[in-house]
Structure formats: structure tokens, C-alpha cells
Design goal:
The protein is of the alpha/beta class and 464 residues long. The chain folds into two domains: 5-275, 2-Layer Sandwich (Aconitase, domain 3); 289-462, Aconitase, domain 3. The protein contains 16 helices and 18 strands. Strands 5-4-3-6-7 form a five-stranded parallel β-sheet, with helices on both faces. Strands 11-10-9-12 form a four-stranded parallel β-sheet.
């Protein structure tokens, strides 16, 4: 029987199938951070058991970390306690831990691929919904809850019903100024935030084959925002070149053996998906959201839709627009903004900073805009400096912050004030996501850069 990429990886990790129930799935890599792991470790302690395979678990601090003065004690007592708990739990159970100041520290979904923890054909989980990022390497990766974190720590397995399978194909060529973030937001705008609920998505077609590995990570990262359990892209030579020689990748004969397996990881001809969608790359514009979920996105030159034209209840739609201070029929171009955030596990990689710098080079930051530029890891921070990107940013009036999740979510000091508009390269624009009362416009690094130097929503294609 012909199999999909998803079937091949899932089926080889099933320890036991429960009749009329979930599968018991073996987990190759378990990533943890300071927010969702402390209670799980308390559960282990109460039961008097240890982590089964500590060498398969990796810990990094990211959600609650400050992005300035990381050498100083963390002011918020809850954050400080969680960070200390991660350090202590990792030490007690012999888990690799990358705390503040460590050269490998950074956002969990950035440092995993950077260090070769993320591999094709692997199963990867983390107590974080955007674990789907790692599917860019042909892995099955998904977020789990705290009780499931405890389950994986204790048994290296998890009980999961097997999702249905969806394939999204995009062929053709992207126009200038269109990024992987735009591709992802376009797909979500078409499917809505619930259109892939119950499915695991494979992305296929010309666009994803041409896309960089970092771009693929951005697309897979946002799979969860259309309700999918996760997303994945078949590994290819780009994948193998990216991971070769990294800290935790196989070496020598083990590499050759792994490659023999990895090259089989693609969907067989005539394999059947439960649902399939096809889109034309030529239709995709730079995207921006106007509402309070990632599915409320439009091409940047378009008008905010009328309530009758979208798949949402009229009352809910009106509530969303009222929160944002927008009206049906408004143009997004020219909307005044207050903050710009470049970073997060969605767009905090070196490719994103290169894109941002390409727009702002030779220009100046707008006088009345606050801009937070936050690399996803210390490795990204080092590259920014080594490639001269920091000089470009500094000349334009920007300052670089230290690695962390930052303004993606209101769990640290980087919060957008109530009523203020933020053009953000992160993944969610829910009410209060970036701070109580904050108003978030999701966009690509290019759109963020254009807003940072104009002080308003601007089509980056006019500045390229």
C-alpha cells in the first residue's frame, strides 16, 4: 500500500495500537522550557520516578526571559522561579540545559534545528503549540500539554489518536517581496483558523521545494494556526545540507546509515490524502492581518472584507473589528502603527533579519515608532553581527535586543501597551496576546521593516 510521508514516520514510531483508541507513540526528541515543565517534574517527584531517557530531552529558557540585561537577576518573581526550576530539574535528571547566557540558549524552536536536535523522520514534542515548526525537516512534531510532558519524561511515549491527512499544494513562482510568512498567512486566510482541525498537513509543490529551510520552518510553525495538529515538508538535499555537521546530528557511518533512511521519506505516488487543496503562487500578495485571529488576513493592498464575505458570525466579526478599531471596507495601507516586533519562533532567524535589513538599509526609523528586534538565539545574534547586519540596523537608528520569545506573548517585560498597534512577525494576534488591550497586525519581516521606517502600514514592494 502506498503511504504518505506522514504515514511512514508515524507508523514506524507506534509502540502499540489500542483498539478503537489512540496509538502509543515513541518520541525521539523532547524539548522543554521553563513554563510548561515545572509541574510535570513535580508529578515525577510525587510518583518517585526518574526521566526515562534524559539524553533525549533538551531544555532551554525562552518564554519568560528578558531581552535586555540578561546578565542581571530576573525581576519578576514568577519568571525567576520558573527559570530556576528548569535549571534545578535539568540538573537533577541529567538533562542538557541551556539557560540565560549559555551560547546555545534561545527560543526552543530555533535552537532545536540549529543544534541538529531536529532530524528527518523523527517524532518531536514540546509543551508549546508551535512545535510544528520542526516539521520543516520531515519530522512529525506537535505541541503537548503539561500532563503529556510528564508522560513523555516518564516513558518516552505519548498516547495520541492518529490525525487525518491533508496535503496543500502551491505551484508557480512567488512575486518579488513575497515571503514564506505571506504564504502561510495566505493559506490560513483561505482555510480559516479551524479549516485543518484534526489533520496533519503536508506542504508540497514548487513553492515549498524552492523555499529555504528557514522559510519552511516559518510555514510549518503556522500550521497550528489553521487548526492542524502539525505540518511537514519532505526532506531533500537542502534539508540534508542544513543539518549536516551540527552538534547532535549523526556522524560518519551513522550519517550514511541515516541518509539511506531519510531519502525514503517522501509521499509515495498515488498515496491517498483525506483532503487536498491547490493554490496558485501568483495570487499571493504581502499579507497583513486586520482582526483578532490569524485567519483574518488580506493582501496588504486590499480592503477589510464585509461581514457577509467571510466565514465568521456577524457579531463575532463586529466585535473583532471593534477591538481593533477598524471598519469594514477600510484600506490597511496607511494605517498608523506604534510598535514593530521582529522575532519569535516564527521569524526570529537570520534570514528574517537579512530581509528586514534589506528594506531599512540607508533609511531611518520613524520618529514615533518603537521597534523591538529580537534574535531567536545567540547563534542568530552572532550572525547578525558577523554579517554586518547590526551595522545596517544601527545606522538606521535601531537597537538589537537579546534572544527570547519577547513580544510574541505577554509573559515577559516586552508588552505592547493597551490600545497601541503593533506590526508583528510573530504567530498570533488574539486579543491581549502581546499585552492587555494590545492590537496586533501579523506580517512578514519585509512588511514589518516597511512599517518601521514609515510609521504606518506600507507595501514593502514600493521600497525594494
Amino acid at each position: 500500500m502506498n503511504k504518505t510521508l506522514f504515514d511512514k514516520v508515524w507508523d514506524t514510531h507506534v509502540v502499540k495500537s489500542i483498539e478503537d483508541g489512540p496509538d502509543v507513540l515513541f518520541i525521539d526528541r523532547h524539548l522543554i522550557h521553563e513554563v510548561t515543565s515545572p509541574v510535570a517534574f513535580l508529578g515525577l517527584k510525587k510518583r518517585g520516578i526518574k526521566v526515562m531517557y534524559p539524553e533525549r530531552t533538551f531544555a532551554t529558557a525562552d518564554h519568560n526571559t528578558p531581552t535586555i540585561n540578561q546578565h542581571l537577576p530576573v525581576n519578576d518573581p514568577l519568571s525567576a522561579n520558573q527559570l530556576k526550576a528548569l535549571e534545578n530539574n535539568s540538573k537533577e535528571h541529567n538533562i542538557i540545559h541551556w539557560g540565560l547566557g549559555h551560547e546555545n540558549n534561545g527560543i526552543v524552536h530555533v535552537v532545536g534545528p540549529e543544534n541538529g536536535i531536529t532530524l528527518p523522520g523523527a517524532t518531536i514534542v514540546c509543551g508549546d503549540s508551535h512545535t510544528s515548526t520542526h516539521g520543516a525537516f520531515g519530522a512529525i512534531a506537535f505541541g503537548i500539554g503539561t500532563s503529556e510532558v510528564e508522560m513523555v519524561l516518564a516513558s518516552q511515549c505519548i498516547m495520541q489518536p492518529k490525525p487525518k491527512k491533508m496535503r496543500i499544494n502551491i505551484d508557480g513562482s512567488l512575486s518579488s517581496g513575497i515571503t514564506p510568512k505571506d504564504v502561510a498567512l495566505y493559506i490560513i486566510s483561505k482555510l480559516t483558523t479551524s479549516g485543518a482541525t484534526g489533520y496533519f498537513v503536508e506542504y508540497a509543490g514548487d513553492i515549498f521545494e524552492k523555499m529555504s529551510i528557514e522559510g519552511r520552518m516559518t510555514v510549518c510553525n503556522l500550521s497550528i494556526e489553521m487548526g492542524a495538529r502539525g505540518g511537514m515538508i519532505a526532506p531533500d538535499e537542502k534539508t540534508f545540507d542544513y543539518i549536516k555537521g551540527r552538534k547532535f546530528t549523526p556522524k560518519n557511518d551513522d550519517w550514511d546509515k541515516a541518509m539511506n533512511y531519510w531519502k525514503t521519506l517522501k509521499t509515495d505516488n498515488d498515496a491517498v490524502f483525506d483532503k487536498e487543496f491547490n493554490y496558485d503562487a501568483a495570487e499571493i500578495q504581502p499579507m497583513i492581518t486586520y482582526g483578532t485571529n490569524p485567519g483574518m488576513g488580506i493582501g496588504i493592498s486590499n480592503q477589510i472584507p464585509q461581514a457577509d464575505d467571510i466565514q465568521m458570525g456577524k457579531t463575532t466579526y463586529e466585535k473583532s473589528l471593534n477591538y481593533m478599531g477598524f471598519n469594514e471596507g477600510d484600506l490597511m495601507i496607511g494605517k498608523k502603527i506604534d510598535y514593530v516586533f521582529l522575532g519569535s519562533c516564527t521569524n526570529g532567524r537570520i534570514e528574517d533579519f537579512r530581509a528586514f535589513a534589506s528594506i531599512v538599509k540607508g533609511k531611518k526609523i520613524a520618529d514615533d515608532v518603537i521597534v523591538w528586534l529580537v534574535p531567536g538565539s545567540h547563534k542568530v545574534e552572532d550572525q547578525i553581527k558577523e554579517e554586518g547586519i547590526l551595522d545596517v540596523l544601527t545606522d538606521a537608528g535601531f537597537k538589537l535586543r537579546q534572544p527570547g520569545c519577547s513580544a510574541c506573548l505577554a509573559m515577559n517585560d516586552d508588552k505592547i501597551p493597551a490600545g497601541k498597534y503593533s506590526v508583528s512577525t510573530s504567530n498570533r494576534n488574539f486579543e491581549g496576546r502581546q499585552g492587555p488591550g494590545s492590537r496586533t497586525l501579523l506580517a512578514s519581516p519585509l512588511v514589518a521593516a516597511a512599517a518601521a521606517i514609515t510609521g504606518k502600514v506600507t507595501d514593502p514592494r514600493n521600497l525594494i
